[in-house]
Amino acid sequence: MNDLQKYYLLESAKWQKLLGVLMWICTVFMVLLGLFFVVAGIIGLDMGEESALLSSRAGIIVMGVVYILCSVLYYFFARYLCRSARGIKTWNVTGDEADLTDGLRNSKNFFQISGILAIISLALIAVCIIAVVIALIVSL
Questions:
Q1: How remote is the C-alpha of 12 from its chain's centroid?
Q2: How large a percentage of the chain has pLDDT more than 90?
Q3: CA neighbours closer than 13 Å in the CB half-sphere of residue 67
Q4: Residues of the chain below pLDDT 50
Q5: 95: left (phi over 0), alpha (psi -120 to 50) or beta
Q6: Nearest-CA neighbor of 35 among 75, 63, 74?
Q7: Which secondary-structure segment (H or E) carries 99?
Q8: pLDDT in tens, 47-78
Q9: What is the tally of structural domains in the chain?
Q10: pTM of the model
Q11: CA dist 126 → 113, 116, 122 (Å)
């Protein structure tokens, strides 16, 4: 590996570390917000309100659970980015190719999960568009 390639690899490791730390912070905020929604929904359900308000409170609980589930994804994204950066930086100090391989493997895992989630998201968007079109046709 020449010096320019090494420079770019180490620069990308810095950005991976920054993004990983930011994702850790987002993960914590998402868990806290999810817990807040769940608790707010439960407190609202215990007040014995009207049925329309009960369904909205149930929606708040569901939204809180979804936030917590999404934070699990963020956890893995942050984990892979930070491990990738650590492996590359360790390789720079030790020169051990196993450290570089570990860093690149974690980078691959990050992009693999990102790609899979992007495909799933696009498929869900397509299904939602089709559902809306069918609902519009049926309602006419």
A1: 20
A2: 83
A3: 19
A4: none
A5: left
A6: 63
A7: helix 97-139
A8: 555 555 556 888 889 999 999 999 999 999 99
A9: 1
A10: 0.81
A11: 20, 15, 6
